[in-house]
Write a structure and sequence with these properties.
mainly alpha; flat
């Protein structure tokens, strides 16, 4: 039992040494001429203007996260579908549970209105006068 833990420890140490080595080599070989052009924000060939610290609407991030969730679903279900006939009924039930959980998440974000790009203004709880 101790040998399995030793193997894991060796892999963790080798991983940490590899990361440290790569960062050290990168630090030694990086160019040192830091001009104003090198330090400016690169915007796909466009001349940058203004500050690069721009606040984006949170909806961009929410839509991106929802996309990632369903992208991972496809990445997990595609290999499963390729060998579906060899897996049997248990694998079908597991995939069905996975899809039901994802659909429940989709129903939740849909119900909360997080899929609506433009939300309707909520009415003021104190009344229309605002006081």
């Amino acid at each position: 039992m101790l040998t399995e833990f030793a193997t894991v420890l060796v892999f963790i140490v080798l991983g940490a040494v590899t990361v440290a080595l790569m960062l050290g080599v990168s630090r030694l070989l990086q160019p040192r001429d830091q001009t104003a052009v090198k330090l400016s924000t690169y915007e796909c060939g466009e001349v940058p203007f203004g500050s690069s610290w721009v606040q984006f609407n949170i909806r961009f991030y929410v839509i991106a996260l929802i996309f990632i969730v369903f992208d991972v679903e496809v990445a997990l279900l595609y290999p499963w579908a390729v060998i579906f006939q060899r897996l049997g009924l248990l694998a079908f039930v597991e995939a069905l549970v996975f899809i039901v959980i994802l659909m429940a998440g989709l129903a939740y974000v849909w119900k909360e209105g997080d899929l609506d790009w433009v939300r309707a203004m909520q009415e003021n709880p104190a009344g229309k006068g605002g006081k």
